[in-house]
Design brief:
45% helix; 16% strand; Lambda Exonuclease, Chain A; 6 strands; 12 helices; alpha+beta
Length: 275
């Protein structure tokens, strides 16, 4: 009988994890080093990321009861946007309103309870819920854009908002796994959790499978296997840099040695890491 998978020493050392953190380690160990070891942050957020954050916030306001115009006005007052970024954000107004209408109809049809917005959840290695900011006990954490439970059932729903292009839902499998594990830990009575993506740019909501969460053990095992595999290269060396099209969205490209051609950048990184 196969043993339950256990996290590697590297995974345990650098917990708590999120899917985005694990992807950073898999895509470019150097970016993982900059982002999660040195915790360096860019002076200016990438335009695509900034637009996405603003639209997410607007949808959050709308779900809380703001009319679409006031929700977007509130966001524009919070975010410093260029004229191009502002136009891009405002172009999402119709899709945001359409989503809200769809969600209200869905909620009524399925007798949903009050939606839970931007839930910050975390679990320990055994899948017990812990405080989101508990770095000592936390193993996996995430922020659920939108989730809800249903009256008279033991089922729940997790929806994620995306402002980029539409992808096949298989692309988000690990993200779904992480959110389902987190929601199950918070509401252990759940036996089924539906997942889906609100593709705002395409103005469409796609639903994935209904997870059977009678037991969370299979999801926990998949997440541990994923984290072990995603971090293999970073565990060997933080110096490995993968130059791909993703570099254009990286916060660290201006001082990454692979792009500056400056070996001193490596020396500086090592010095900062020792401080």
């Amino acid at each position: 009988m196969a043993k339950d998978p256990q996290p590697s020493d590297f995974v345990l050392e650098h917990a708590p994890w999120s899917v985005s953190k694990a992807k950073a380690a898999a895509e470019c160990p150097k970016r993982f080093w900059f982002s999660y070891i040195l915790k360096k942050r860019a002076d200016k957020v990438n335009a695509d990321a900034l637009v996405g954050q603003a639209v997410h916030k607007a949808v959050e306001y709308m779900l809380a009861g703001y009319p679409v115009s006031k929700a977007f006005d509130a966001v524009l007052a919070e975010f410093e946007l260029t004229s191009n970024e502002l136009d891009r954000v405002m172009n999402f107004q119709v899709a945001a309103q359409n989503f809200l209408d769809k969600f209200h109809r869905y909620s009524t049809r399925h007798n949903a309870k009050k939606p839970m917005i931007e839930m910050k959840l975390a679990v320990d290695i055994d899948g017990n819920p812990v405080d989101f900011f508990n770095n000592k006990r936390g193993f996996l954490r995430g922020v659920l854009d939108l989730s809800c439970l249903f009256q008279g059932t033991t089922h729940g729903l997790v929806l994620d908002h995306k402002t980029g292009k539409e992808h096949d839902l298989r692309y988000f499998q690990t993200q779904f796994d992480s959110y389902v594990w987190l929601l199950k830990a918070t509401y252990p009575e759940l036996t089924g959790i539906q997942v889906g993506i609100n593709f705002l740019k395409a103005d469409v909501v796609r639903f994935g499978k209904m997870y059977d969460v009678t037991s969370a053990a299979p999801i926990r095992d998949r997440m541990i296997r994923y984290l072990n595999e995603a971090t293999l290269e970073a565990e060997k060396s933080f110096e490995t840099t993968h130059i791909t099209k993703l570099c254009n969205w990286c916060d660290h490209i201006s001082y990454c040695p692979a792009h500056t051609g400056n070996d001193h950048g490596k020396e500086t990184t090592q010095k900062e890491g020792a401080d």
